[in-house]
Design a protein that fits this description.
alpha/beta, DNA polymerase, domain 1, 6-stranded mixed beta sheet
Length: about 400
């Protein structure tokens, strides 16, 4: 559907819920097949076919995050696709892979699509990357839309539960707006990138983004309970952290809520640090009696257990950086700041400090940088690596 009037959704939405004009709501295999035909028709007559995608999930509301909505824009059409109602999305995936697919801040979307469908789009482009490479310091979608189109995007559904059905009118309008302006933004930024001769930078950065997503393991880590900051704990504290983390997982799964709604990682760490120092913290106020008992049971179980069974601290043996290497790292970072200022870019775009540390730590560390970053930083990189004998 590509109508100019709004579509009422009988049976799919609350009374009075209306899909925005010119937007199709795709929630059956038949509707998906019709949409795919239209995508193929546009791709066939458009040499440089492009589409835009965004996704919505329910990570703030349920234990197991899932993909709940796909927003698509192509040509002059917008579609809201319901993956909870359609099992086989492969025809759409194949059609969209005929051309570029634009996202804004693609990392999360790519991760979700890969986990759900095993799919990483063939040719990804990202307006957030384009904005940063053209010098934008405010590169959130709402800020860019306001700057370039003088339109204010609503944030009303930012934390909504996208697994709920029916979706409200407010949620549907919010969802469409996430892709409504992307192709126009893409045109603006491509023109700016070409003017600045930075299009190769952009393409390489988008490819690096996809490579980074593909490089991540989709298997859960064995030590997921080691939350940020746990490295400071001794075995005693690690034991209670592990016990509480496993208890939190059980309760969150049982109640189908995100883990942070039971206890935040910070709360877990604070309790574990206190236990590590021989102190005890009372369970959070307002907890039900069962939770308080189980919380105390975890502490008592650790107290009664054999210390030999407690998790051990992992000591990382990362070679100490030599004074010469540290001096070259500082010089590289200073040169990066100067070059970034001249290019009107954020310094981190030329290589994070962590990446530059890899460059001075080992001969092959240069591969951590993209080709365009190596070109821009060629002088300082050559000087540093010459001094270090690489």
């Amino acid at each position: 559907m590509n109508s100019t009037t709004a579509e009422i959704l009988p049976g799919l939405a609350e009374p009075g819920t209306v899909v925005p004009p010119g937007v199709s709501y795709v929630d059956t295999a038949e509707k998906l097949a019709e949409l795919v035909k239209r995508v193929h028709a546009v791709a066939a007559r458009t040499p440089d076919f492009r589409s835009c995608l965004d996704t919505e999930a329910d990570s703030l509301h349920h234990y197991q995050e899932k993909l709940c909505l796909i927003q698509l824009a192509f040509d002059n059409e917008y579609a809201l696709i319901d993956p909870l109602a359609i099992e086989d999305m492969s025809p759409l995936i194949a059609a969209l892979d005929l051309g570029e697919i634009w996202f804004h801040g693609a990392d999360y979307d790519l991760t979700l699509l890969r986990r759900t469908y095993g799919w990483t789009p063939r040719q990804v482009r990202d307006t957030q990357i384009a904005a940063r490479l053209t010098g934008s310091r405010q590169f959130g979608l709402a800020a860019l839309v306001e700057t370039h189109f003088q339109q204010t995007l609503s944030k009303a559904s930012q934390k909504a539960d996208w697994s709920r059905r029916p979706l409200s009118s407010v949620m549907l309008h919010y969802a469409v707006d996430d892709v409504r302006y992307l192709l126009e933004l893409a045109d603006k930024f491509q023109h700016m990138l070409e003017e600045k001769k930075r299009m190769p930078w952009f393409v390489q950065s988008c490819e690096a983004l996809c490579a980074g997503v593909l490089a991540r393991s989709t298997e859960p880590k064995e030590d997921r309970w080691k939350v940020q900051g746990s490295g400071k704990l001794h075995p005693r504290g690690l034991a209670v952290l592990k016990g509480l983390w496993e208890w939190r997982e059980t309760i969150a799964q049982e109640r189908d809520v995100p883990c942070f709604r039971i206890m935040s990682n910070k709360q877990l760490l604070d309790v574990s640090i206190a236990f590590d120092h021989g102190q005890s913290l009372s369970p959070p106020a307002g907890w039900r009696p069962r939770w308080k008992k189980e919380y105390n049971d975890v502490h008592e179980a650790v107290q009664a257990s054999d210390p030999e069974t407690w998790p051990q601290r992992v000591r990382l043996h990362s070679g100490r950086m030599s004074d010469k290497a540290r001096e070259q790292l500082d010089k590289l970072c200073a040169a990066r700041e100067q070059l970034a200022t001249a290019l009107e870019l954020e310094p981190s775009l030329l290589g994070s400090r962590g990446t530059l540390e890899q460059v001075v730590a080992k001969a092959e560390g240069i591969e951590e940088l993209m080709p365009w970053q190596r070109d821009v930083m060629a002088g300082p990189l050559g000087d540093a690596r010459s001094v270090l004998g690489f």
